[in-house]
Amino acid sequence: MTAGFPASALSGDGAAILRTALISHWADGLARAVYLPMSPRELRVFLRTAADQLIRAVAAEPPDLEAARGVGRRMVQTGLVADVVIPATTTALATHLPALARAHGSPAGDHATTLVLGAVFDGYVDAARRRVLAEQEAVRRAEAEARRQAEEAMRVSEARFRTIFTDAAVGIGIADLGGRIVDANQSFAAMLGYTVEEFCRLSVSDFVDPDDAQGMWEVYEEIIAGRRDVARMQKRYRHKDGHQVWTELTASLMRDRDGTPQFTVAMVEDITARRRLQEELRYQAVHDPLTQLPNRALFQERLSTAFATPGSRIGICYLDLDRFKIINDTLGHHVGDELLVLIARRLSDEVSARGHLAARMGGDEFVILVVDPPENALTELADSVLEALARPAHVLGHDLRVSASMGVVETRVEETTPADVLRAADATLYWAKAEGRNRWATFDAERNARELARYSLAATLVPALDAGEFAVHYQPIVDLGDGRIRGLEALVRWHHPNLGWLQPERFVDLAEETGAIVPLGRHVLQQACAQVARWNRGHPGDALFVSVNVAMRQTWEPGLVDDVGEALRASGLPGHLLQLELTESALLDPGGRAVEALTALADTDVRIAIDDFGTGYSNLGYLPRLPLHTLKLASGLVEGELLTDQSPFLSGLITFAHDLGLHVTAEGVETSSQAKRLRDTGCDTAQGWLFGRPATWPHLVREHLGPVAHTTAMSR
Ligand code: C2E
Ligand code: MG
Ligand code: MG
User: Fold this and answer.
1) 10 Å Cβ neighbour count for 608?
2) Does 611 sit in the ligand 1 pocket, CB within 6 Å?
């Protein structure tokens, strides 16, 4: 052992120099190493300690080989294991240790050095071997741990996948690239009626639906070719027992490590029930719940499809039951409904058999769509449908007879739009109704255009009134005795911005239909009263009366009496200078509303005239019962044979009227011979082109009322 050999014993000058030389030599040798695990300073400290231990070891008697081995071991333990370590150590120790041994009085200098050097390398090699073993063991252990972990992860994921695969509610199947089933889960097999074992013996082609197969293989090929990763689609499969199974399929591709396609994986969900529900909902959405006929939505859909096919022609028969409302109102809606069901069945039998679509548009309206109708097919169809519908119908104990009217339109799709063709069919239906029902009418573009023009005119009536487009013209009413003008008939005119001057025949009926006649009539009344009152104020001796036409529709308005009163009050015209002209039909209005109004008006002194007498019923019987003042003979009576033959009829009529206290005015007097004869038969006054055409007020004043006096053809 080294005990009893203190370091200070080495401090003799010679020995110290040798020691330093050893350390330096050793350090320089080691410094050539590419890598040392310590700094140069730390290395010197280490080497100093090692050198001292070795000096002690070599100087000991016998040499302390265990200490030398310890130095070798520590070299390895501190990490001095580079290639240069052994040569550098050998050189440094072999060079300096013998001298140092001798300096310390070792008896066996060189021999001791050899022993010590050998022991250093023993220790070194031993430690190095241990170190390598330890490292190898660590690596082996780490590797084993890594493998264990990987295997565990694999096992877990495999187990997890298996669980998902086996227990999944969704069907999962794996097929090779030829379509052979490689694996499938219970859900997939059961979905199509197989056990998993049976299923795994099949190929995809064994259960795809033949109708569906084509598109499916294309997608399959795209997946295999790598052009798409996943495909999602709704697909039909064939169940083992033959029925169809609708599925939502997600197909994807499995590749190997190199990216080569290996398998296709299909995930399938059974959506048969959902599809059925969707189909049911879709059916309900496009069918009428009462009659089960296709509804308006489906009809529109088919019509649009037809319109999307260029060059095609379509025929539409729009039909409406005649007077269906009466059945509903008198027998009740349940009878009405049953009748509609029966009608729908007959319609469908006639139409569907020919491959056309029959739909219910609502209420008692139905429509037939014929795509590319052969010649005459539409009218033949219309005939047979109307005939079928007209057959006696036995409904809930009632024997009913119904008929229908039908509008028939045929057109090329390029010529119109779905909306317009329906409008045309609807308009044509109303022509059929107007022509007497239980018939069909075909569309007539010219007639339609005329009606459209009428409607658009009707629509602008009220705005035109506000815009001041209506003017009142006046026609003289002349005394047949002295030829003087006694009064004026007010006749309305429309100065239309685009169409120019319009006569009443163009718009008065329209105004009556729409009700616009009420404000229009009020306007004429106010204008005429104001105009004539103003004139009369300037000519007190020759006061004129004004005769204003009143339409039947106006007599229905409770405000008529007030309107008249207001016009008189505002203008200052006395009531007896206002005459209101009503036609016979207005007076005979079954509601009696006109008579009521007339009675009230007669109380205000206003005169009432029957206009155009002789064109309607010409019923004399009611004349005495009405509060009348004037009978206006229609121009037909004046120009006809009645007059030329000097028939006693006209003179009888005039006498009768006079007996009732009525004043008689003849209308439409165009010739002086007519005028003369009328005067001879006792007619009181007359109007007509002979005396003056209806004219504007200024024109009237210039021509007839001017300072030249009230000249007329009679007095001239
Ligand atoms: P009406 O009341 O019988 O008016 C007489 C019509 O005969 C006027 O036609 C007048 O221009 C025309 N006439 C006058 N003399 C002759 C003649 O010698 N020969 C011929 N062929 N015709 C003559 P107009 O102005 O076109 O009015 C037509 C109808 O329109 C009127 O018939 C009247 O029923 C209605 N009407 C005119 N203005 C109004 C009005 O302000 N209100 C209402 N409700 N109806 C009006
Ligand atoms: Mg008139
Ligand atoms: Mg008249």
Assistant:
1) 21
2) yes
